[in-house]
Design goal:
single chain, mainly alpha, Cytochrome Bc1 Complex, Chain D, domain 2, two-stranded antiparallel ribbon
Length: 251
Amino acid sequence: MRKLIFGLFIAILPALGLAAGAAVPLDIMEPDHTNKASLQRGAALFTNYCMGCHSMEYARYKRVSEDLEIPASLYEENLIFTGAKIGELMKVSMSKEQSAGWFGAPPPDLTLESRLRGESWIYSYLRGFYKDDTRPLGVNNVVFANVGMPHVLVDMQGLCAVEPRIGKGASVDPLSGNINNADACPEYAIEGSMSAAEFDRSMYDLTNFLSYMGDPVKVERERLGVFALIFVAIFFIFAYLLNREYWKDVH
């Protein structure tokens, strides 16, 4: 009995971890792996803004090119800057020793980051940077306190002068009809090239791409799952009829 209880406890541990949730409020992000245009934009953003430091060494350029319906020649010309071939793994040229010296720790590989953190965490984190002169790089993050990463998207978003309102969401004032918290950042120390809505859409695309990288077969898996359930349902009918035939003379 003790072994049974212990086994059940171990089995529900992952569910308890998920139920605990994040330590800070997050903005909800629902990925859509069928949106190829969003994934293509996300791939371009990742290559241009993230891949200087972060690798995806468990994935290959060719697989991404095929899944996102980007011609291999076009992918090589515009989205591979290291001189790697289309069939190689998505590694970066910067060594871990160099990055550890510059940032204090080597930037993590992001292939499975969405599986580790969740899409809502990544989406909120990307939009959560703000000015903090007490930090070595001059920025902090409301989702990841005392983060060691610079705000590489500052030219797009700008730099929030105060902590962004992540996880609070927009609301309508019932008296005036004004929308509160429409933008995550109420005040900017540096203006960016995008509006708040445009930047949010871009971060959705980037997060969507990272979600795809963490589970590239999700769409196919879900499609095959439907056929598997249909097969089980049909098989159950015949199994039930056969079982009834076997036991009909047993009293």
